[in-house]
UniProtKB/TrEMBL annotation:
Any single Gene Ontology cellular-component annotation: ribonucleoprotein complex
Keywords: Coiled coil, GTP-binding, Hydrolase, Nucleotide-binding, Ribosome biogenesis
Bias kind Basic and acidic residues: ranges: 432-442
Molecular function in Gene Ontology: GTP binding; GTPase activity; ribosome binding
All residue ranges annotated as the Tr-type G domain in the record: 17-357
Organism: Sander lucioperca (Pike-perch)
Segments of this protein annotated with the region Disordered: 432-468
Protein name: Elongation factor-like 1
NCBIfam families assigned to the protein according to its UniProt record, in alphabetical order: small_GTP
InterPro entries: EFG_II, EFG_III/V, EFG_V-like, EFL1, P-loop_NTPase, Ribosomal_Su5_D2-typ_SF, Ribsml_uS5_D2-typ_fold_subgr, Small_GTP-bd
Gene: efl1
């Protein structure tokens, strides 16, 4: 097919039924970009000879050097089958560091091409992209690529290759089946929950009688999974070799080809059981022919047989191809005409993937349901937008809805209005310039004559304009879900926290973005200056883009940071946030080499933060500018962008800032030499901690019990707090860490209830909160955890972290954290809260939040610690004294209750900003000296209670998946052992000589790991690092020898390597904290065998 004109693509954009929005997803180096090259070459944009070598959609220089894709790129292709189709193709990265780019691509698509290497099979990133496609409700098709490796590298026969391909299909379907099963289980559980509510009495009688047996398989039998799995019989699988330019899709649709064989003697197709030798029809008619072609062209180079093949296939091969020294050139020339890859893939895409009109109602409701609110609780005008989604409305009166998944930067010179002109455009402009020049000369002559008559000299001033520097322009990567996007149109930009109900109530009815509207929270207005058609490395300017198309928008950089929802209707809700697989964890501090260039660095980091969907830019309390990335490759790309594109200055980056967590563990039963630890030794350690804690504070304000209970009195002696630190079970810590969003939602609900507001919560959210509570109750078992879940005061840090504050104060019954599960009348709840909440209750919570945000070991956040408040006394003189200091006549209990810091404030400073807007008396009461001293006392009590228990550091851990051959297995183990990694298991991929090693590796030891392992194995092993979890470092960083056996074993100094102490001192040194270390231990003169001089 020849090159498609821009006018043809614009015409195709108006028919959403024939539009296919798809992305290519795969593990790294499985052939995504090579496949994309073959599809691009089918439109005449690049030569078919360069497909796979040019890597057209990898437009960055570092992408070409490294040979991997780092950003998602889009291109529009035309394909003609029975009808004309427009394919908006997005090529995405496969490296785990850039999985955020995959998320931005998947959100804009309706389908996906999953590419799997025929040798490596299903890899970790293959599972990740299948999961991302499933979460976004898009339909996938499968391309099994690199089949030529089975022939040339593994030397498999066609029958062995058939069995190998079957196993790959089974692996991919197993991943899809697991995702499908989990969804059916959830739906089945929701259905059963509703039935229980309707027939509660009958259910109770059945449970009491013991007759009920729950059958989970019932839901799976009823669910329709006919279109779920990949199978050649369904036509959603293509077998290909993209580098050689061929691919095919089996045409049998009635019964599988594997069920039949070809009987040579009778020349009949029979069931495979009846054919001698049991060779499947797929092997005989398909694979054998491909194997024989490779054997003739590449292996044996049999010219006679090649000529016969060319004649029988009826293909035309150029003489230079047949004489070429590389046999792959001749092979590609034959195969690209015999089995064209682009035709097989594009026909499958047009037939099997849905169009924008086929978007399901389930996906629409999921996109529009943000936070705890359910879809049917949204305003009626918002629910009416669902019809516009499903119908792909593009009328003049239909609302415009656009989702921006990311912002990407392009050089201003490369924009269509700034690019070099063609010969025709140059000729047209030359003619216009001549005409303007003639008009100008005539006007100047007329003006000169008039001036000569008046006697005034003529002066011509020419403004000198400095040459514009190379600038970056941000273009939004977006898709139109409803309406028509037009150049220059003004739209509402909806932030992630925008509430359509609030917006509709504050704005006049029928208002648009052109009107002057009042200020609405999280709502802004901007204009779409230019619209672009994305064509890989180039942009084509458009005047309008109809519904269902992917486009680029210029002019949003002031209003959109990373992603946003655009609409002409204020009733539109913001779309749900993107799902990111990789967590940014690698931190470095950035500074300019010349301090005078700091403003350029700040501007460059701001641009980088906007251009990268995963990168984060922070300014720490110390003033450091910190860049947070997903991995080493991602970090290197961000630093290169800062130097060359955004800041354009020389910068220096610090060593990676390694994150740690602090925790406590149960007291050990044995010492460092595996001797039983007696009770006397434990008491000695407690007293040692007590003495250290009391050095900087008068002894009468701090008391440490032998059981670890810390009692602290405020400096004004008006309040006393007793706190005990208890280690949480590991399962509870993992549950809290994985339920961060749910805990944050719970906090928002409780804040609304405290303020007396009504919030309609979706049943799914309530069920999730009830499930979290039930899981905590099942995990916190035992005498010391009795009723602990009901007494949870708060989570921390930032009110949603993996630490718990327990209320064990006698006689203090504050409102439950789980009150939303059994709430009745909301006004009654608010009144009960006002009566049950104690004065300065939030001061205790704020002190706990500060203590968990920075621990005593190295000012890192705490994790897996439970602080139980067992005593909290405030003397009655505290409140009158507080009144006198503020010159207030009286303070009511209600005023104190109203002035407490609300749950939405994550820090004390944010609460202070809220209090300034309240009456002066309430503001002063809440933030007076008693409250401040109570916060400080609670924080110090938590820190001392933490130090009274055995302390440990927690290190961030990567999961490391390594694919290596057998001959380099020992070298891989050597590198892992050197860097304190642990091998969990290894397995050999069946039919290959490749081993898959799964190991864990500390993040602190991972820098340079990928480069070292490639050097040691000569490139035969490639690791994939993904952040997994936090793990306790077993060694005690504060350990000193105390028993006689430890003194004998370790010596008096005990200066042997303590890895946890090294980590702790490194963090303290970086933060400017005191580090206890001796620079010179023995300063006597060095003695040698020579004579002293």
């Amino acid at each position: 097919m020849g090159h498609t004109s821009l006018d043809k693509i614009i015409a195709l954009q108006r028919n959403p039924a024939n539009i296919r929005n798809l992305c290519i997803l795969a593990h790294v180096d499985h052939g995504k970009t090579t496949l994309a090259d073959c599809l691009v070459a089918s439109n005449g944009i690049i030569s078919t000879r360069l497909a796979g070598k040019l890597r057209y959609l990898d437009s960055r220089e570092d992408e070409q050097i490294r040979g991997i894709t780092m950003k998602s790129s889009a291109i529009s292709l035309h394909y003609r089958n029975d009808q004309d189709y427009l394919l908006n193709l997005i090529d995405s990265p496969g490296h785990i560091d850039f999985s955020s780019e995959v998320s931005t691509a998947v959100r804009l698509c309706d389908g996906a091409i999953i590419v799997v290497d025929a040798v490596e099979g299903v890899c970790p990133q293959t599972q990740a992209v299948l999961r991302q496609a499933w979460l976004e409700n898009i339909r996938p098709v499968l391309v099994i690529n690199k089949i030529d490796r089975l022939i040339l590298e593994l030397k498999l026969t066609s029958q062995e290759a058939y069995s190998h391909l079957q196993k790959i299909l089974e692996q991919v379907n197993a991943v899809t089946g697991t995702l499908f099963t989990s969804k059916v289980m959830e739906e089945r559980a929701e259905k059963e929950k509703k039935e229980e509510e309707v027939e509660e009495e009958e259910k109770e009688s059945k449970i009491l009688s013991g007759d009920q047996v729950y059958d989970w398989s019932a839901g799976l039998e009823e669910a329709d999974d006919s279109q779920l799995y990949f199978s050649p019989d369904q036509g959603n699988v293509v077998f290909a070799s993209a580098i050689d330019g061929w691919g095919f899709r089996p045409a049998c649709r009635t019964r599988p080809l594997a069920d039949f064989g070809f009987a040579i003697k009778s020349f009949h197709i029979q069931a495979v059981e009846q054919v001698k030798g049991k060779k499947q029809l797929f092997v005989q008619l398909v694979l054998d022919n491909i194997w024989s072609l490779y054997d003739a062209v590449v292996t044996r180079r049999d010219k006679e047989k090649v000529e016969k093949v060319i004649a029988s296939l009826g293909v035309k091969v150029l003489a230079r191809d047949s004489r070429h020294s590389d046999p792959k050139v001749l092979l590609s020339a034959i195969c690209s005409q015999w089995l064209p890859l682009a035709q097989a893939v594009l026909s499958m895409v047009c037939e099997k993937l849905p169009s924008p009109i086929d978007m399901t109602a389930e996906r629409v409701e999921k996109l529009m349901s943000v936070g705890p609110r359910r879809f049917d609780s949204l305003p009626e005008q918002t629910q009416e937008l669902k019809r516009a989604f499903l119908q792909c409305s593009s009328g003049e009166n239909d609302p415009l809805i656009i989702f921006v998944s990311k912002m990407f930067a392009v050089d201003t010179k490369t924009l269509p209005q700034n690019r070099p002109l063609t010969q025709e455009e140059i000729a047209q402009r030359r003619e216009l310039a001549r005409q303007r020049h003639a008009d100008r000369m005539a006007a100047d002559q007329t003006a000169a004559e008039s001036r000569s008559q008046e006697g005034q000299p003529g002066l011509t001033l020419k403004d000198s304009q400095p040459e514009e520097e190379d600038q970056q322009t941000f273009v939004a990567f977006a898709r139109v879900y409803s309406g028509v996007a037009k150049k220059g149109r003004r739209v509402f930009v909806l932030g992630p926290k925008y509430d359509p109900a609030q917006g509709l109530s504050m704005m006049p009815e029928g208002s648009s973005a052109w009107d002057r509207v009042p200020a609405v929270p999280h709502l802004s207005i901007c204009s779409m200056d230019s619209l672009y058609l994305l064509m890989g490395r180039e942009l084509e300017e458009l005047d309008e883009v109809p519904v269902g198309n992917v486009l680029g928008i210029r002019g949003l950089e002031e209003c959109v940071l990373k992603s946003a929802t655009l609409s002409t209707s204020p009733a539109c809700p913001p779309f749900i946030p993107l799902n990111f697989e990789a967590t940014p964890i690698l931190r470095v501090a950035i500074e300019p080499k010349h301090p005078s260039e700091m403003p350029k660095l700040v501007r460059g980091m701001r641009l980088l933060n906007q251009a990268d969907p995963c990168a984060e830019v922070l300014i720490q309390e110390t003033g450091e500018h910190v860049l947070v990335t997903a991995g080493e490759v991602h970090l290197q790309r961000c630093l290169d962008d800062l130097r060359k594109r955004f800041a354009k200055i020389e910068i220096s980056a610090s060593k990676p800032i390694i994150p740690f967590r602090e925790t406590v563990v149960r007291p050990p039963k044995v010492d460092m030499v595996n001797e039983d630890l007696g009770k006397q030794h434990k008491v000695a350690i407690i007293h040692q901690v007590k003495e250290e804690a009391s050095q900087g504070r008068p002894s009468d304000t701090l008391h440490v019990d032998h059981s670890g209970l810390v009692t602290l009195t405020t400096p004004n002696r008006l309040a006393t707090v007793s706190v005990r630190a208890i280690p949480l079970p590991q399962e509870v810590t993992c549950l809290l860490e994985s339920s961060t969003e749910l805990i944050r939602t719970l906090e928002q609900v409780n804040m609304s209830l405290r303020e007396g507001k009504s919030l309609d919560i979706s049943p799914r959210t309530l069920e999730a909160i009830a499930g979290l509570k039930a899981q905590l109750e099942s995990l916190l078992q035992g005498r010391k955890w009795r009723n602990a879940v009901e007494h949870i005061w708060a989570f921390g840090p930032r009110r949603y972290g993996p630490n718990i504050l327990l209320n064990l104060v006698e006689g203090y019954q504050r409102p439950s954290l789980w009150q939303c599960l059994g709430r009745g009348d909301q006004s009654g709840e608010a009144g009960a809260q006002a009566a049950g909440m104690r004065d300065l209750d939030n001061s205790i919570v704020s002190g706990f939040q500060l203590a968990t945000l920075s621990g005593p070991m190295c000012e890192e956040p705490l994790m897996g610690v439970c602080f139980s408040v067992e005593r909290w006394d405030i003397q009655s003189a505290a409140l009158p004294q507080h009144q006198d200091s503020l010159k207030e006549d009286s303070i009511s209990h209600g005023a104190l209750t109203d002035s407490r810091v609300e749950g939405s404030s994550e820090t004390w400073t944010a609460g202070l900003c809220q209090a300034r807007r309240r009456p002066q008396a309430a503001s002063a009461d809440c933030y007076g000296p008693v409250s401040g001293q109570l916060i400080a006392a609670m924080k110090e009590a938590c820190r001392h209670a933490f130090q009274a228990q055995p302390q440990r550091l927690m290190a961030a851990i990567y999961t490391c998946e390594i694919m290596a051959t057998a001959e380099v297995l020992g070298r891989v183990y050597g590198v892992l052992g050197k860097r304190e990694g642990r091998v969990l298991h290894e397995e050999m991929k069946e039919g290959t000589d490749m081993f898959i090693i799964k190991a864990v590796l500390p993040v602190a030891e991972s820098f340079g790991f990928a480069d070292e392992i490639r050097k040691r194995t000569s490139g035969l092993a490639s690791p994939q690092l993904v952040f997994s979890h936090w793990e306790v470092i077993s060694s005690d960083p504060c350990w000193v020898p105390t028993t006689e056996e430890e003194y004998l074993h370790f010596g008096e100094k005990a200066d042997s390597a303590n890895q946890a102490l090294k980590y702790m001192n490194a963090v303290r040194r970086r933060k400017g904290l005191y580090v206890e270390e001796k620079i010179v231990e023995h300063a006597e003169k060095q003695r040698t065998l020579g004579k002293n001089k």
